[in-house]
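Continuing the series of single-chain predictions for the mutant panel. This is the parent chain; the variants come on the following pages.
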Amino acid sequence: MKTSLLYLLFFFTFCLYSQEQIKLDKTDNFYLTFNKDEAYFIKNTSKKDNTIALIENNTISIRRKGLDIYLNWLNPLQYKMIIKDSIVNDVRVEEIKKFFTENISVISSKSLIATGSGSTKMNCTDITKSNEISRLYPDLFKLYENSATGKLKDDYCKYWLIFKDLYDVNIPTIDLKEKILAIYQATTPDDASQAIVEANEAIDAFEKKEDEIASVLFLLKNKGEELVEPDDLPLKNTMTKVYNTQKEIFINLRKYRDLLKIYIAQVKSSLQKKSIEFEGYYRIKTITLLDGKSSKIGITLSQRELKDDFSLTDKIETKKINILLQRYDFITPKIGTGLFYANTKIAGYSTTTDSSGGLTVSKDDIEKNTAVTGVFLNLIMDVSSQFITPLIQIGVDPTKERPYLLLGGGFAILNHFSITAGPIWMWEPTLNKLEEGGAVSSNSALEDDLSYKFNSSPKGFYLGLNYTF
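Parent structure:
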């Protein structure tokens, strides 16, 4: 018997008919910009003002197998950026695999202490003329002025000359903290480059005097102990105070030098891999996509603060974005499940009683009005329209002994409603050993004899109305 059927479907599904994504052209790189608490990127490299704002989670499709990510220059001493990336399975490939996997069976350093001696370029008669030294060591100068002439005054003079050497070698090292501040406060690549040059000059000046400073400190401590009389407590206390002060200054200068080298290296690294397309942008990451894979990228930006000891501390998280980077494809697959209502006429076999009271095989049509669940694979086409999106639909009803197979197409309207239509195929029951009109011992014997075979000829058409939540 010829079977004809028409399905009128209305079902609710959780399938998305279009996916919000950012598409890059083949020649585009990814130019990321952080501005205060905002994040956006430049889409078209020919127009720098063509920007798209980024939200916390973003999907970006590219038309090639790799992508360079560039960032507007941010001083790494002011901002800390953490980039994490991982390779994940392409969700679109997984959607297709999932549909067919689940339904195919249905279908079928240096030391501080150094040796040596300082040079004496000044005689005792010049001490009172040295305003700089008297300002630097007022306590010692006062003791010298008030002391009597003779051996004690001569001893003060010798000790004083050691201080003079120490003062001379300290002069070129007083601006290391200023160089740290200059690098930290740089807001442009040019400012940072100039600050690096000046910082390296200051480091060179300090390191040329570093051994000499250590030698003078050694002399200051050891010669001072020889010169000072045990019972001369004022002089002894003054010398100890001066030595400890100068030693602390020297230790801090070394610390500032070491910090400065670290900061220079961080800033220099941020100035590498400069973009040839856009001034002020630098490459921070290169992503390569494997077939069937996507890249999940997380970028976190935090502010940093320079503490009183000139070390850095992280303050607050300024911005965090996540990017799913995938290969662009004209087709986006999505699986939807739903409920549709069917008014069908399906061919079937049953038993009837003949005139002699025996059972025979008969073929008849079974009419059903029933709610049927279905699984659909929707292949959505990218036509860059926000109103109408074409799609191809493959559907199967896995709940029946002989499932329906649907293949159609349609349109999604405003990303929520869709209309689809297409032919239906099905598995039909056939007799193996029994024959239509022949005798059969029981209903169970008939059921055991039936098998279901796929009929390659369409058995009808379906019309679907779909709504996406």
